[in-house]
Design brief:
203 residues, alpha/beta, six-stranded parallel β-sheet, 6 strands, 33% helix
């Protein structure tokens, strides 16, 4: 399968996790990485070009830090403009039907903060419900997010290298259709237990 990763980080020079994750992604065969802030610094998104990209890939990923329980601004603008009626949904809007979609996301808070009893009161998966519903409306299969919690301390704690390695395994499994899609749909995060979703050759 062909994978499109739409990367959005408005301060990439300060990124300790998303930047190396994006750089590793760009080196993987069969994966197209698009840095949206680099490509559209004025936020003037080329709708036709983005729709062509979507049509030529089987898997769509939003890669971004969690900003105010959602995406950075350019990804919202991208959704508003690119996912048009008649293209992505509505009458005749079947261009994305059957494709796979998920978020590759970093969150500054600890995982324990994302639950009913935690500081943020909702799980990460719950906070992403608007994006999940967007994917569903467009006929796409939404998978659990690939997530890194406590991202602000990941560098000091030496967790980035392992996170990138897990990410590469997930992309490889998707690329070669060796990821258990049905199991991946129901998880809280894709990288919670990779052995549960990766078929034998990717374990």
């Amino acid at each position: 399968m062909r994978i499109l990763v739409l990367f959005a980080h408005p301060a990439i020079e300060r990124s300790e996790v998303n930047r190396p994750l994006a750089e590793a992604t760009a080196r993987i065969e069969g994966v197209s990485l698009v840095d949206l802030y680099a490509e559209y610094p004025d936020l003037r998104i080329d709708i036709d070009r983005e729709q062509e990209r979507l049509q030529s890939h089987d898997v769509i990923v939003f890669m971004h830090p969690l900003y105010w329980y959602s995406t950075p601004a350019i990804l919202k603008e991208w959704q508003d403009l690119v996912l048009e009626y008649g293209f992505a949904y509505g009458e005749g809007g079947t261009a994305l039907a059957g494709k796979i979609f998920f978020n590759a996301i970093t969150a500054g808070g600890a995982e324990a903060a994302y639950c009913a009893q935690g500081y943020n009161q909702f799980t990460l998966r719950q906070l992403l419900y608007p994006i999940e519903q967007t994917a569903r409306l467009c006929g796409m299969t939404y998978l659990a997010p690939f997530a890194l919690y406590s991202s602000r301390t990941a560098y000091e704690e030496g967790r980035i290298e392992a996170h990138i390695a897990d990410w590469q395994r997930v992309l490889s499994a998707l690329r070669h259709e060796r990821l258990d899609i049905e199991t991946a749909r129901g998880l809280e995060k894709l990288n919670g237990d990779l052995d549960a979703i990766l078929k034998d050759s990717d374990r």
